[in-house]
Design goal:
single chain, about 350 residues, mainly beta, eight-stranded antiparallel beta barrel, five-stranded antiparallel beta sheet, 4 helices, 21 strands, about 30% strand
Length: about 350
C-alpha cells in the first residue's frame, strides 16, 4: 500500500517570503528529518494510542486528541490502568476541570480532588486497577541518546548509542525508545574501570505535551483516572514526583487553547462550570475497527538521522540563524512524529 506522509511533529519556524530568498547553508532540523529513509521510522502500535474525543467547539467542529502511551519499561502499571479505564468507558462524559496558564490542562471526574467542584458526586472507579509505588517512577534500561551536564554540546556517534554532551540543570538526560528521560547512572567500578556506563535508572521528563497522572499527597501515586498534559514551559521539578504515561501527538491545539480557570491552581470554579469541556469518549485505537493502521510513526532515536537532527537542534547553522545557541535542553529536541495515511 502506498503511503502519503502528512506531517512531522518537529517544530517549524517562519520561512522567508519565497523559496528563492533562502540562502544556501546547512540543512535545518526539519530538512534532516524529511530526508530520513523509511527504515528509520518506527510504527506506533495501535494498542499504544488513545483517541480522546472532545465535545465539538463553538463552531460545531469536531475535536480529536491522540495520546501515545509509553511502552515498557516506563510507567506500565499506570498505562495498564489507563487502558482498563478506557475499555470500561470510564472516561466517557468526564470533563476538562483545570487549565492553568503556562502549566497544565487536567481532565477527569469533576468531583475528584477538585477544590472548586462543590458537592459533585465522585464517579466510581472500575474494579481491577493496580496500585503503584513511588519506586515505579523509575525504570531500568539502556539509553540510546544522552546529554551530560557542564560540557559543551556535542553529539557523539557510538553505535548503537547516540550521545549528546550538554548542560541541563536537572541532571543528566537521555532519549530511550523515543522518549525524553532523566538519567540516574548505575555505574559500578572495578579499579579505575567503569562497568556498564550506559546502564542506569531512567525516568520520563516533563516536556511540552507530555501526559501525566494526577495524584494526592504521598504515598498516593494516582490511578490514571486523573490525567494532565503540559501546556507551558517544561515543569521539570515534577520529574520523579508524578508518573508520566504518554504524550499528545495530535490535537494539542484543542487543549492548549482552552479558557484558563480562575480558581485554585487553574481549576474552574462553580460559577465557571460551563467552561469545563466535556470529553465524549476515550478509546484504545486498537479497539476502533475503522481506525486506520498504521497511523503514526516516530523517528528511531537509535538512527543516524536522529543523531544529525539532534546535533542540528543543539547547534543551529541553517541560514536563518546568525549565532548558534551552542546547546539545547532535552525538551528542545522533540522526537519527530509523523502521521501516515493510506491512499
Amino acid at each position: 500500500m502506498n503511503k502519503a506522509i502528512l506531517a512531522a511533529a518537529a517544530l517549524t519556524l517562519a520561512l522567508p517570503a519565497s523559496a528563492q530568498d533562502e540562502p544556501e547553508g546547512a540543512p535545518s532540523p526539519n530538512q534532516i528529518v524529511e530526508s530520513a529513509p523509511q527504515e528509520e521510522w518506527v510504527t506506533i502500535p495501535a494498542e499504544d494510542l488513545l483517541v480522546m474525543t472532545l465535545a465539538p467547539d463553538s463552531n460545531g467542529d469536531e475535536r480529536e486528541v491522540i495520546i501515545q502511551l509509553m511502552p515498557a519499561p516506563f510507567s506500565q502499571g499506570w498505562v495498564e490502568n489507563i487502558r482498563t479505564l478506557a475499555r470500561a468507558k470510564w472516561y466517557d462524559d468526564i470533563t476538562v476541570n483545570r487549565v492553568q496558564d503556562n502549566y497544565v490542562v487536567q481532565w477527569g471526574d469533576p468531583g475528584y480532588d477538585n477544590p472548586e467542584s462543590g458537592e459533585t458526586e465522585t464517579k466510581p472507579l472500575p474494579d481491577g486497577l493496580k496500585v503503584m509505588g513511588e519506586d515505579e517512577y523509575l525504570a531500568d534500561y539502556e539509553i540510546t541518546y544522552r546529554m551530560l551536564r557542564n560540557r559543551p554540546t556535542e553529539v557523539v556517534m557510538r553505535p548503537p548509542y547516540v550521545k549528546i554532551k550538554g548542560d541541563d540543570p536537572y541532571g543528566d538526560t537521555a532519549v530511550s525508545l523515543g522518549w525524553p528521560v532523566g538519567l540516574i547512572e548505575g555505574r559500578s567500578m572495578r579499579g579505575n574501570r567503569i562497568l556498564n556506563p550506559e546502564k542506569g535508572q531512567l525516568f520520563p521528563v516533563h516536556c511540552y505535551g507530555m501526559v501525566g497522572v494526577g495524584r494526592g499527597y504521598s504515598p498516593d501515586t494516582g490511578s490514571g483516572a486523573e490525567l494532565y498534559t503540559v501546556i507551558g514551559h517544561a515543569p521539570r521539578h515534577l520529574d520523579r514526583n508524578i508518573a508520566l504515561v504518554g504524550r499528545i501527538i495530535s490535537g494539542m491545539e484543542h487543549l492548549s487553547s482552552l479558557p484558563r480557570g480562575s480558581g485554585t491552581l487553574g481549576f474552574y470554579t462553580e460559577e465557571e462550570a460551563e467552561l469545563r469541556t466535556p470529553i465524549l469518549s476515550v478509546r484504545v485505537a486498537s479497539d476502533i475497527p475503522e481506525f486506520p493502521q498504521p497511523t503514526f510513526e516516530y523517528l528511531s532515536t537509535e538512527s543516524e538521522t536522529f543523531a544529525k537532527y539532534a546535533e542540528a537542534r543543539a547547534n543551529r547553522r541553517d541560514p536563518f540563524f546568525i549565532v548558534p545557541a551552542g546547546g539545547a535542553d532535552i525538551c528542545n529536541i522533540p522526537v519527530p512524529v509523523r502521521r501516515v495515511v493510506g491512499d
